[in-house]
Amino acid sequence: MTTPSAPPTFRPSLRGQTAPFRVMAVWAAAARRAEAGLPVFNLSAGQPATPAPGPVRRALADALDTEVLGYTESSGIAPLRERIAQHYLDWYGLTVDPAEVFVTTGSSAAFNLAFLSAFDPGARIGLATPSYPAYRNILHALGCEVVPIPSGPETRYQPTVAMLEDVQRHGPGLDGLIVASPANPSGTMLDEAEMAQIATYSAQQGIRLISDEIYHGITYGHRGTCAWSTDRNGFVINSFSKYFSMTGWRIGWTLVPRDLAGSVDALAGNMAICPPAPAQYAALAAFDAYEECDGHVAQYSRNRTLLLDGLRSIGITDLAPADGAFYVYADISSLTDDSAVWCARLLAETGVAVAPGVDFDLERGHRTMRLSFAGPQSTVEGALEALAGFVRR
């Protein structure tokens, strides 16, 4: 009789043990609460309450009837790349070759392609904190070293060339740098001169710049500045999700530096074959909907004023400027030193869903929260009333 051998031991990948994106857990908890018939005022995620623009929906219906909707080129259908290139001429006065445009499965896939094509394991990538947590988590999963650059009100939550010089002086040099303007979670922006200084310095130092511009179009003053206005050695990443209200369509794009175009094309073909064909054909019509989308931004602007004024009226006054995007980043250190626990209680007791700051800043986020004003005005109003009651107990 043979003795049964011990069952094999399976070891999980260290890459897979990345930190969660906490906002998605809050979103799920809010959904469970709504399913139970309890009130919910969801200010947790950057999800426009509006559907995709009318021309986009009509274009999808036409494509379903007239197109095969099979595989496309890995970089996307030529008409969409040409239309995106035209968008840069229309908005920024920039001439972009359609061959430099790669359509992606949302901006998330664009970040993956940029990171994989530009950085080896061990590469050092700088990013200002607070920042979008998926940057950090994806880079960790790829074996890169994230170099936090703490920022605050004194630099409007954005990095500066002086900060980058300090990082370069006091450690191994950076291989890459991520900037976001407007930024998530702060909503702050780099002006034209600041973007030009950072892009120029990065090019001079051999630092591959990745400029997250997915909130362009959603601004409350001047239009965002494209990093390619100064230098084209880095990536520009954008998406149809935010300004065009197409989050679930999973369609975005990136402008790719010429020296990495072949790498990006090969990676895209192997990892996803191509972006979703129906979304590509529909997105062609997004650029015919500027007026409709600007109407959404006008509503965001009203919500922004309502939320900023409402928070100040209940004593939450230390707020990032919110130049763009649809977020308010708030210091709640007078209320808690554990934002994750406090935000969980807020949801459980009032139905107000917000994102704890620890998602965006591992060192200082325990005393901050992020609130989204992308939803209906009634949601913002209800959240403020419930939050006021919670704070004043």
Provide a descriptive summary of the structure in words.
By secondary structure, this protein is α/β, with parallel strands linked by helices. Helix 2 crosses helix 9, helix 4 crosses helix 5 (133-141) and helix 4 crosses helix 8 (261-271). The protein is globular. The protein has helices at 22-35, 54-66, 78-92, 106-118, 133-141, 161-169, 192-205, 261-271, 277-283, 290-313, 339-350, 377-391; strands spanning 41-42, 101-104, 124-129, 145-150, 176-180, 208-212, 235-239, 252-255, 327-331, 352-353, 355-356, 368-372. 40% of the residues lie in helices and 13% in strands.
Q: Topology, please?
A:
Elements lengths: L21 H14 L5 E2 L11 H13 L11 H15 L8 E4 L1 H13 L5 E6 L3 H9 L3 E6 L10 H9 L6 E5 L11 H14 L2 E5 L22 E5 L12 E4 L5 H11 L5 H7 L6 H24 L13 E5 L7 H12 L1 E2 L1 E2 L11 E5 L4 H15 L2
Parallel strand pairs: 1-10, 3-4, 3-5, 5-6, 6-7
Antiparallel strand pairs: 2-8, 7-8, 9-12, 11-12
Helix pairs in contact: 2-9, 4-5, 4-8, 10-12
